[in-house]
Design brief:
alpha/beta; globular; single chain; TIM Barrel; 353 residues; two-stranded antiparallel ribbon; 15 helices; seven-stranded parallel beta sheet
Amino acid sequence: MTGPDDALSNGRTLKPLLSVLKGACPVVPPMWLMRQAGRYLPEYRALRAEKGGFLEMVYDSAAAAEVTVQPLRRFGFDGAILFSDILIVPYAMGQDLWFEAGEGPRLAPILAETDLSALKPDFSRYEAVYETVRQVKAALDPQVTFLGFAGSPWTIATYMVAGQGSKDQGAARRMAYSQPEKFGAIIDAIIDATVVYLSGQIEAGVEAVQLFDSWAGSLAPLEFERWVIRPNRRIVERLKAIHPDIPVIGFPKGAGAKLADYAAGTGVDAVGVDETVDPHWANRVLPQGLPVQGNLDPLALIAGGKAVEEAVDNIRAAFAGRPHIFNLGHGILPDTPIDHVEALLSYVRAAGD
């Protein structure tokens, strides 16, 4: 983890969000929202209707760049998150990827039924994403921090093994227990592909990256250590060897009581905290000075008003004195009223008035 002195670079103050990732504690926390580019925005829905399906949007670099900057124009967030999808990695590893209307992503062949050697990697499938990064970078306000991302190995493996999402990630959990060598080989391949992917994003222009482990909460403690902490640590170590100054945010959704072990064991520069975690507890158990991100409940944002204000006050109080990026505890939901997002921004930023 970097220290607060690193918030200055060549005598110049860093961008607000990037400075927090480097250890700064501003009066008003910088802010972005997970899934801030997406379906709750009418401008996104209009562009998607014009361009077609979700994957078509991701692979149209100009459209993906436009989607990435749409929420910046409307809300003036401190961070821009690349518009893409975590399943670009298995797609580049050789699985077919498509999206079923109303049902979500599909991957084939399913690794529960075939071997990893059946896949033929094609990392040229990353190139359109890198072009999106370059276009966004050229369009961003100089004070906005540009975030890239990838899914963490455990979460990606759950999709690769089952061919789709599931409620309990049962297929991957069964394989991890009964065929640990086969499952470990899948994890190793995902790590390699993810390091290539994130390194390419960094070279194209992102200034920090986030590792999304959306299904981390489905694992028993020993399995969490094996399939969440260790693989993420390997990614962090390899990225730091190539890009030592790029902060890495780890987001192990559902980690709960294992959050402190995750922070200590992975070596991430900041930890995302989901909405189920008591922020006061998180502040007590996480390493002193470690930047945190989160953790407003997306449903509170839909409710708006007093529900949001009470939650914001609680989160701000919990993380007072700690580097903090204000965010949701998970992605913004499609039925979120835009005026509630505007009110949230105003309320968070009013602390500096």
